[in-house]
Amino acid sequence: MSTRRNVKSDANAAADAHERGRDYLGLAQIDKLLACAKAGRHGARDHLLILMMFRHGLRVSEAIAIHRDHIDLAQSRLWVPRLKRGLSVEHPVEGDELRAIRRWLGQRDDFLPWLFVSERRQPLTRQAVNYILAAAGERAGLGHIHPHMLRHSCGFALANRGYDLRLIQDYLGHRDPRHTARYTRTAVSRFNGLW
Which molecular-function annotations from GO does this UniProt entry contain (predicted)? Predict the structure, then answer.
């Protein structure tokens, strides 16, 4: 019996991994998720958390690691310290996001370094973020939503806007373009105008 790996099968499985199922949200679904998060008990925090995870393609560990001093409100900039050997970058912060940050910070009376904190004045945990997203997803009627869906949603949204692979790769902090190619390969905008 041969122990040689079937390289062709491995390559096909990797190339068509997107066919396993849709693991991202469209912009209308993101809007519903944000609205439902805002209506919750910790609406300002949860809305901002989901907005930033989507807009900046943050992993859970990156979102909960953001400190207040990573945000420059005067310059509308966010320093994104990427994990998993990703490339850390500075991102612009749009007006609605800037207002959401100010609204959340305006509700706080502490000087803790983390941007996202719990009622117990501790940084949010991965489990807390999973719960926040799952609860907002259920309220929005979107079913089970997991945090990494927001990162994928960011990549697909940028690809559908027509941005090239290299820009999306840098924005998401990918070192290897193969991790980014899935977004541009299946982008709807690539097929616009074919007919």
Answer: DNA binding
